[in-house]
Amino acid sequence: MNIPSELKYTKDHEWVSIDGAIATVGITDFAQSELGDIVYVEVETVDETLDQEEVFGTVEAVKTVSDLFLPLSGEIIEFNEALEDEPEKVNSDPYGDGWMIKIKISDASQVGDLMSDEDYKALIGA
């Protein structure tokens, strides 16, 4: 199970990479393996400002559809449009080409609410 130490995590199995006031978000290796083959990623919240833990989109796998929860409050400024044609990138490269959105963070104090890689490993029993 790949759980990069430089990232932050949520109990909802999203990862967060923070670069200044911009956060890149995707789902974890654990989440994509539990979902199975991902066939569609839907994000219709670009240019919207949402609160932490609000649903920002869905990921559809062969057997199920799961909501995606915003790890930090802010404005969704970008969607990884490559996923429209190749949603399987989430399976093959969840921390790279399979990223989902970028957020302009509105409350930097929320970063402290995110889990470390060690906390996330404990959550999933890795």
Describe this structure in words.
With 126 residues, the chain is α+β, with helices and mostly antiparallel strands. Helix content is 18%, strand content 35%. It is built from 4 helices and 9 strands. It has helices spanning 29-35, 82-85, 89-92, 117-124; strands at residues 8-9, 14-19, 22-27, 38-42, 49-50, 55-61, 65-69, 74-79, 101-105. It has a 6-stranded antiparallel β-sheet. Strand 2 (14-19) and strand 3 form a beta hairpin. The chain is globular, with a radius of gyration of 13 Å. The relative contact order is 0.26. The mean pLDDT is 97.
Q: How are the secondary structure elements laid out?
A:
Elements: E1 8-9, E2 14-19, E3 22-27, H1 29-35, E4 38-42, E5 49-50, E6 55-61, E7 65-69, E8 74-79, H2 82-85, H3 89-92, E9 101-105, H4 117-124
Antiparallel strand pairs: 1-2, 2-3, 3-9, 4-6, 5-8, 6-7, 8-9
Neighbour order of strands in the largest sheet: 1-2-3-9-8-5
Could you say what the CATH architecture is? Beta Barrel
Task: Return the CATH topology.
Answer: OB fold (Dihydrolipoamide Acetyltransferase, E2P)
Main sheet specs: 6 strands, antiparallel
Would you identify the regions where 5 or more consecutive residues have pLDDT less than 50? Answer: none
CATH class: Mainly Beta
Tally of contiguous helical segments: 4
User: Which structural class best describes the helix and strand composition?
Assistant: alpha+beta
The H-level CATH homologous superfamily, spelled out, is RNA polymerase II/Efflux pump adaptor protein, barrel-sandwich hybrid domain
Shape: globular
| Cα distance spanning the termini | 7 Å
> What would you report as the Rg, rounded to the nearest angstrom?
13 Å
